[in-house]
Design brief:
The complex is a heterodimer of chains A (483) and B (428).
Chain A lengths: L8 H8 L4 E6 L5 H12 L8 E6 L2 H13 L7 E5 H11 L11 E2 L10 H13 L7 H12 L2 E2 L1 H12 L2 H10 E6 L7 H10 L5 E6 L14 H4 L1 H4 L3 E6 L1 E2 L4 H11 L5 E2 L6 E7 L2 H15 L18 E5 L5 H11 L3 E4 L4 H5 L2 H4 L13 E5 L8 E6 L10 E2 L2 E2 L2 H12 L2 E10 L1 E4 L2 E4 L15 E2 L11 H6 L3
Parallel strand pairs in A: 1-7, 1-8, 2-3, 2-6, 4-5, 6-7, 9-10, 11-18, 11-21, 12-14, 12-15, 13-14, 15-18
Antiparallel strand pairs in A: 16-17, 19-20
Chain B lengths: L1 E5 L16 H11 L3 E3 L6 H10 E3 L5 E3 L1 H4 L15 E14 L2 E11 L2 H14 L9 E2 L3 H11 L4 E4 L19 H5 L8 E3 L6 H4 L9 E3 L14 E5 L4 H9 L6 E7 L9 E3 L4 E3 L1 H6 L15 H8 L14 E4 L2 H9 L6 H14 L2 H7 L2 H8 L1 H11 L4 E3 L8 E3 L5 H11 L1
Parallel strand pairs in B: 1-2, 2-5, 5-7, 9-10, 12-15
Antiparallel strand pairs in B: 1-11, 3-4, 5-6, 6-8, 11-12, 13-14, 16-17
The chains are: A alpha/beta (483), B alpha/beta (428).
Chain lengths: 483, 428
């Protein structure tokens, strides 16, 4: 068969691969979803009557997008079950209810339903449930589980664990294997151990698993994701093949080079001829940093009134501002509001989006009848899977990247991956900014640049100095004059 | 009845506007100028909306008046000769910034509402879409088409008027941020637009050269960002003194309620010619073509002004008229005439004092500019100003055209001419 024009050689190999499990290692912008959906469409003709494909996505939103793409490729809805792990497992619990030990009429508890347990307690228990197969329950754990049972609830993590229990019944596991002949899993780098074991049960006896993901973008360790599982694929699913997609269709080559340097030796080939611009900016304070961002955005969109008008190549929806902590958001919002720049705050996928199916929560998406463009503000975690012509990463400082503040310290390799995820969202312009002084959680912190910045070759960087309009309201500007 | 209306102004809540741009000053300046109906501007802004609710009361159908308790204390400041009733009509301008066909579009649109309820509906809808509290002329990432849809949905009597349609950066047909046709911008909803605003840098005759504008009536407003700029342009109506009167005059193609418009000399507008302000390059469109649009100083494309843009889109010869054409009179603001007489800038105290003195003696500004017998002006303000008004009425002014955001400069007298006129006077 001849390779179609919309697939490159390695994508084509991945699409056509037959005869074993397959892990596709797909870096940012390498056409991951494209390759995955094309591969699904490719195996459809091999299905026998009554057989189906199982496609597991990270969020419900991603599931909808995949559904749309598959429909466009002529795949019928009846041929594929698309959903999150939780959506699929919940379906199993409902379909095979009589084989479970669940209370009759059990309901799924959303985090909002649960009262009487502190946030930290719930996070700790959730982490146990998602990162350990065998749990040695402490008193708090036991009392939480009793609380759930009393209310005839199971929580999101229990959906997976109960499904795992269900699949210990070989009859049911066998039934599923005969039904789902091909299993596809997206975002494999963010899989947890429970999901891993579920897949091991399903992908046996001729069932073929295709997993796709990028180990360099694993950023959900705090939710129990384990990037080692990505590297262990060959051992977990023998026999298997690993293919790598290296051609990037998103970012300008200079930006790709810079992110590759931060990640230490990742080399992707830029296929687009766009001109990239990597701007570094040091501000005296977080407020000055926010003003800088707002002013740059005003410039990028070609001005907001007659006095600032200039040629515009970008619109509001082309721009995102990324930050490590939600606490950094307020000052940015104020600076944008001051200039009247429309913005929206995008949240990272809620647990409800990741873990629910439609049965649980119904359509709770807001009905938006007009397409409104705004500058996006979001945490780096929320930016996963997205791309923007213009990306600002603010607060590139040594206690935010990697995160190391009082009471908050994060796994260092994962922090680097998070920064890499942020950088690789950018198509044309990437701004890395930092402040020398920052207000955070009621404290004034004196800041140093993030060590990640020095990993980027100097010739790729353009430094933009601080240019500020002195206003009476602004003590920072007055202070600048002293330097 | 015959009345003057300036339908596009702003409040102090808009960006880059005067701090005293409030209802009281609009009330005062409308009378100084001789405007009978003035837009409120900015009705979407929550604080301004509240001020409108607090300080205005319903008057004639769809029109509002400043409550007596706010108006009465102001009346002493108004020369007897200028005192007149002032009515407000609810208006707002929205700045739409959005991408269409992969190009960034920036279009300003004016909306008129017949009631606080209708205005409130628009406010609620836009408030759910974006930030309406940090700028009285809110910037929304909303397609103009959708804004028109929202406007019509809120009340069938709302009027939607694409603002200063030729401004390069912020308008429906602008060279930099606009479209090539109204239909391209507004699609199937175009038929719900009855009027378009010419803006300072174009006059009706320029607009008549586009057949695509034939179905629209042309309106002219000041887009004032300070009270004294009120009435830089205005509309003369002769119809029922009400919102419905205005609505009919604009929407009904056979209605003759809009009589004429008062216009800036388009050359005086900020974007008449092409060029680069920072490079001090000011070009007639022909010159721009000669240079292929590239600024010799900085090597970047020049800002293409209104004259050039009209020429590009025109499909009718100069001198042709549109179906809904109205006569118009070019005017120069009175302070500029006084400054010209005194050979000084407009901002000086002497000019301001002279302005108020003349109003006290003769009447409001539009009366002086348009109707007052030249002899009366001569008596009240001297021969030179009288001659200035006379020349303005006949269009005998010299203007260095505006470009790339720089206003054009008006010259009525050559050097030595003022003295010459005064000497003539002394002969009598």
């Amino acid at each position: 068969m001849q390779r179609p024009n919309d697939l490159n050689e390695s994508q084509w190999q991945a699409v056509c691969h037959q005869g074993s499990h397959l892990l596709i290692s797909a870096g940012p912008g390498t056409g991951k979803t494209h390759a995955l959906t094309r591969r699904i469409a490719q195996v459809i003709p091999f299905l026998k009557s009554g057989e189906k494909i199982l496609a597991v996505t990270f969020t419900n939103k991603a599931a909808c997008q995949m559904q749309d793409r598959l429909t466009a490729l002529g795949v019928r809805q009846s041929q594929v079950f698309i959903g999150t792990f939780h959506g699929f497992c919940l379906k199993l619990l409902r379909d095979y209810f009589e084989h479970t030990a669940l209370p009759k009429d059990f309901k799924v508890a959303t985090p909002e339903d649960i009262t009487g347990f502190g946030k930290e307690t719930l996070e700790r228990i959730s982490h146990m449930k998602s990162s350990q197969l065998a749990i040695d329950p402490d008193e708090e754990y036991k009392s939480y589980q009793r609380y759930l049972r009393q209310n005839l609830w199971i929580d999101f993590d229990d959906i997976l664990r109960e499904a795992l229990l269900l699949l210990e019944d070989e009859n049911i596991a066998g039934l599923l294997r005969r039904q789902y002949r091909y299993v596809f899993v997206d975002e494999y780098q963010d899989i947890n151990i429970v999901q891993n074991v579920l897949l091991k049960i399903l992908a046996r006896e001729g069932v073929l698993l295709t997993a796709i993901g990028d180990a360099n973008q694993s950023i959900y360790g705090f939710r129990g994701s384990r990037v080692e599982l990505f590297h262990r694929f060959k051992e977990d699913f023998p026999p298997s093949e690993v293919l790598t997609l290296r051609e990037n269709y998103r970012s300008a080559s200079s930006l790709l080079a810079a992110s590759g340097q931060v990640m230490g030796g990742v080399e992707l080939t830029a296929k687009l001829n766009t001109e990239g611009k990597l701007v570094m900016h040091a501000a005296v304070s977080d407020r000055a940093e926010a003003d800088y961002v707002a002013q740059q955005i005003e410039k990028l969109i070609g001005g907001l009134d007659m006095t600032t008008s200039r040629r515009a190549r970008h619109s509001l929806g082309d721009i995102v501002v990324l930050y490590r902590l939600n606490a950094q958001r307020h000052v940015l919002g104020k600076a944008l509001e001051y200039l009247g720049i429309p913005y929206q705050i995008a949240q990272k996928p809620k647990r409800a989006d990741v873990y629910s199916d439609e049965d649980v929560l119904g359509h709770n998406e807001e009905q938006v009848d007009y397409n409104v463009e705004k500058v996006s503000l979001m945490t780096l975690h929320a930016a996963k899977g997205l791309e923007f012509p213009v990306v600002f990463i603010v607060g590139c400082e040594d206690n935010l990247f990697p995160l190391d503040l009082i009471g908050m310290k994060s796994d260092s390799p994962e922090e680097r991956r998070l920064f890499y995820v942020g950088m690789t969202r950018a198509k044309e312009h990437l701004y890395l900014t930092y402040a020398r002084r920052r207000q955070l959680f009621g404290q004034t912190l004196m800041q140093n640049p993030s060590p990640y910045l020095s990993d980027i070759a100097e010739e790729l960087k353009a430094y933009e100095a601080e240019k500020r309009r002195a206003t009476k309201k602004d003590p920072d500007a007055a202070q600048m004059k002293l330097f | 009845m015959k009345f003057l209306a300036d339908l596009h102004v702003h409040s102090k809540y808009s960006r880059a506007t005067a701090k005293n741009l409030d209802l009281e000053n609009l009330y005062l300046w409308a009378q100084y100028k001789g405007i009978h109906i003035v837009g409120t501007g900015d009705f979407v802004h929550p604080q301004w909306f509240k001020e409108l609710e607090d300080k205005l009361e319903s008057a004639e159908n769809g029109l509002f008046k400043l409550k007596d308790k706010f108006a009465d204390p102001l009346d002493a400041q108004i020369p007897e000769s200028c005192r007149a009733d002032v009515r407000f009509v609810l208006t707002v301008e929205i700045s739409n910034i959005y991408k269409r066909h992969d190009k960034v579009r920036k279009v300003h649109n004016l909306i008129l509402s017949p009631s606080l309820q209708a205005a409130g509906k628009i406010q609620a809808k836009l408030g759910s879409i974006g930030n309406i509290s940090s700028d009285g002329r809110p910037i929304l990432g909303l397609d103009s088409y959708d804004l028109l849809d929202i406007t019509l949905d809120a009340d069938a009597k709302n009027l939607f008027i694409p603002a200063h349609i030729w401004t390069p950066w912020f308008s429906a047909l602008g060279s930099m941020g606009g479209f090539d046709s109204m239909v391209e911008a507004f699609g199937d909803l175009t038929k719900h637009i009855f009027a378009v605003e010419t803006g300072l840098s174009s006059d009706p005759a320029m607009n008549w050269r586009l057949k695509q504008l034939d179905d629209f009536i042309l309106v002219s407003n000041s887009d004032a960002h300070s009270p004294s700029k009120l009435g830089r342009e205005a509309n003369v109506f002769d119809t029922d003194f009400s919102y419905d009167g205005i609505y009919k005059a604009l929407s009904d193609k056979d209605d003759k309620g809009l009589v004429s418009t008062l216009e800036f000399f388009p050359e005086e507008g900020k974007y008449h010619f092409d060029g680069h302000r920072n490079c001090q390059v000011r070009w007639h469109p022909k010159e721009t073509i000669k240079h292929k649009g590239i600024c010799p100083a900085c090597g970047k494309p020049v800002t293409v002004g209104v004259a050039n843009r009209v020429e590009i889109l025109a499909d009718r010869l100069e001198g042709g008229k549109s179906r809904r054409w109205r006569p118009y009179q070019n005017i120069v603001p009175l302070v500029e005439l006084i400054a010209e007489v005194k050979n000084t800038g407009t901002a000086g105290k002497a000019v301001q004092e002279a302005y108020m003195n003349i109003l006290a003696k003769l009447g409001n500004e539009f009366y002086i500019l348009l109707e007052c017998p030249i002899d009366d002006i001569k008596q009240a303000a001297g021969l030179v100003l009288a001659e200035g008004v006379n020349r303005m009425r006949q269009g005998k002014v010299e203007i260095a055209a505006g470009y790339d955001g720089e206003f054009g400069t008006i010259k009525i007298f050559n050097s030595g001419e003022r003295e010459h006129i005064e000497q003539q006077m002394s002969l009598f």
